[in-house]
Amino acid sequence: MSTNPTISLDQQLALKRSASRLAEEFSTAFNTETIERFLNSSFDEFADKSTIPNFLPLLAERFARQRLQALARIEGHVTDTNPVVLFLCVHNAGRSQMALGFFTHHAADQAIAWSGGSEPGTEINKVAVAAMAEKGIDISGEFPKPWTDEVVQAADAVITMGCGDACPIFPGKKYEEWALDDPAGQDIASVRPIRDEIEQRVLKLLDELGVPQAARRQPL
Prior knowledge:
This is Arsenate reductase ArsC. The protein is an alpha/beta fold.
């Protein structure tokens, strides 16, 4: 398990359970050593940032799962042709999380979306959560996370929102910068127009990716 010297016994036991679940889920793609390496590095990524230590193993498992899903696509272990979109902003707390919420809702099972940040925050913007709740989309269970090479490489399209030169560039990807105000520090009345513009951009992106409208959920 993780070599982090501050890890508690409860966290070690939780990570072992996480490793078992991931090993079962990715049994046809990766060996135990690869899965544990991704889980441990994911745990270390959040170890110094999380304010709730008991949640660390769960965050690590969720992040490791996303990274392993990305690696599985890169290595050809996934056969579906659904497009993959990565939404990036600075803190992965507001804009990119709202975009992820809208994309996941509207695309249904016809496309995949992930999100990340160049300087991930410690929690999701509560006003962004409230604004999305008004549209019937719950993003309260999401969490800020960094981007990793395998996640970027697995994406067909990378949508950036203000992270500038810190955003990763890999050949062969569709890149698009969305110039949007940052909801950080703003009240909900100011965030609503940002939210609504993000939804319209997401719907346009789905058209560009060829996701058929008949297969999508209706606009909110």
